[in-house]
Amino acid sequence: MKLYTINTEPLRILDIFETRIKELPEVRATKARGYRLAKDRALSLGAGLLLNQALRESGIDPVTAEFDATEGKKPRLTKHPDFHFSISHSEAFAILGVGDAPVGVDIEKISPVPLDIARQYFFKGEYTYLMALPEAQRTLGFYRLWTLKESFMKAVGLGFQLPLNQFEIIMTAPIQVKQQVNRHDYAFTEYQTLPDYCISSCEQL
């Protein structure tokens, strides 16, 4: 799997936004323009620019590429079934994961979080792992688990239709998942490329 990253803060500047949005296909440009906040418009544009780049690198014309974006299902290319992708964004950054098998990516800005969320929504073993960490490491531990879980939810194509407590991320080396969604195996990767952000990916083997 290949990971693409873009800092979208410059895209919040109106002149830059208006220049770069011309690079997007009409449907995605319309979607980006539809957001009320400049931050959200920039994130949508940034994700579109990353997708354009990945498509071109795969020999696919972004202008003519056709997507199946059926509500409730993961978007996919209708004529290129081996091109799998996943998009995520948080605060200033958008990321894109691309592979030849189903993939999922997630990025989250690390900030204080009430750990009761983990107790309420995570699998019991994950919460036990989290609370066994030194207190100073628990916030990072929470975001590691969260991004790993969300990347898996995206890789299987269900997103938040799959409850967080219906599968368990096991923080071994390598990281594993205990799940009953399907019979596939999955590989996880964590990225430490952006300070103050947690990034994870999941790819079907």
TrEMBL record:
Q: GO molecular-function annotation terms?
A: holo-[acyl-carrier-protein] synthase activity; magnesium ion binding
Pfam families tied to this protein: ACPS (PF01648)
Give the 4'-phosphopantetheinyl transferase domain ranges.
Answer: 102-189
Keyword terms: Transferase
One GO cellular component term of this record is:
cytosol
Q: What InterPro entries does the annotation carry? A: 4-PPantetheinyl_Trfase_dom, 4-PPantetheinyl_Trfase_dom_sf, P-Pant_transferase_sf
Q: Which SUPFAM superfamilies does this chain map to?
A: 4'-phosphopantetheinyl transferase (SSF56214)
GO BP term, pick one: lysine biosynthetic process via aminoadipic acid
- Record's family? Belongs to the P-Pant transferase superfamily. Gsp/Sfp/HetI/AcpT family.
Q: What is this protein called?
A: 4'-phosphopantetheinyl transferase domain-containing protein
Origin organism lineage: Bacteria, Bacillati, Bacillota, Clostridia, Eubacteriales
